[in-house]
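Course assignment 3, question 2. Fill in each field.
Student: A.L.
Task: Predict the tertiary structure for the chain below.
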Amino acid sequence: ALTKGVLHLRAGQSKRPFSRQQLTSSGKQEVVDRALTDEAFGAGRDVGVMAHNGYTKGTGVEWAAGLFNGNGANVVPDARFNPAAVARVGYNHGGIKGYSEADLEGGPLRFAVAASAQAHLDGTAEENNGLRGEMDFMLKVNGLSATGGLYMASPLDERADDALGFHAQAGYVLAGDWQPAVRFASHMPAGDNNDESEMGVC
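Answer field:
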């Protein structure tokens, strides 16, 4: 941290600042697996450099911006450099723990909203080609939690499809330590008869 709570620099392999569900540790999620939208819209780890204000701490305004290799996690880079510029900005209200899905702490209404975008600047890697954006939210009140995200992808050329997607999830803490949760997610690429959806209950 260059200035604690104001400016941090991170270099190496880390999560791109894209999608609340990806940025939430697997140990702090209500459902065992992340939604299908997570992989479909390019959330995940990558090698790069990022500046941020401690954005996962969930206080007031959060922001992060970075430049990444674009090849994803645990991939040996080849001669092709497919840089990905990624940015995220959001707002947290009421002291919410915005990267922990269950409302284990309880209390009055708290919420978090954010938006992320990533652009692959080379445009030659078919699997990463194009622009992606998402908006997400989290709401907690008296043991009830709700979270969700809306996603879009737009190609830079004809080798990739436009796509939309979303997921919505809700859970409720019972007896202080038991929580049922339900989630629905859908990925809708351009074209006919190629949508995919899933529902999870935990």
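Instructor remarks: Strands lie at 8-15, 45-52, 60-68, 84-93, 110-120, 131-141, 144-154, 163-172, 181-189, 196-201. The first strand starts at residue 8 and ends at 15.
Grade: pending
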